[in-house]
Amino acid sequence: MTRIAIVTGAARGIGAATARRLAADGHAVAVLDLDEAQCAETVSAITDAGGRALAVGANVADAAAVTEAVARVESELGAPTILVNNAGIIRDNLLFKMTEDDWDSVLSVHLRGAFLMSRAVQAHQVAAGWGRIVNLSSTSALGNRGQANYAAAKAGMQGLTKTLALELGRYGVTANAVAPGFIVTDMTRQTAERIGVPMEDFIAARAAEVPVGRAGYPDDIAAAVSFFCSEGAGFTSGQVLYVAGGPRA
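Above: the chain's sequence. Below: its structure in token form.
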């Protein structure tokens, strides 16, 4: 059955791969990111393959913008019942160097954004008696040097996920989280640049630590999200799936 999905942070990386995968699964997809123009490539990839997609520009940390964005999706695609909260930023630094703005901006986009989007979309899900929410966490939720803000946000995503599962389950809505390990994206390129290591060397070093012997890619995460969004995942809720190439995150 065709559903209407919203994927945040979908202009590139994991979000773009997820949007393409959900479209391939037969859903119409709202490709949401801060800059609507940057969503064009993802939208084109979906429509060129015969799918339906809509570019939506919105700051997920802005309540009014979120309300407007979800209303636009309902008007132009239909009532959304699948939500993937993927939007995120990094402002890495050691604790003694981390500014309040570094902390606030990361928590705002990840956690406030997921809260606002979930609150807006759940009304449509409850009305439909069916819904899927997938939040992007990270192995950093277990702690990661130089990422106090990001680690706290990603751990928070897990608590939010489990609470949404408890509150919304009676309405046919599931909530789950995917926690990626090392994934090759623009964000990990920023990390390599920050620590002064060439990207190729950074990937090789990290891949050597992964039991399956390679780095992860956005499509690996999109596959996990696809399962959680499927009809067959209706009895799976409140779970955190670590997609990290091995049993130890």
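Strands lie at 4-8, 28-33, 53-57, 82-85, 131-136, 173-180, 240-243.
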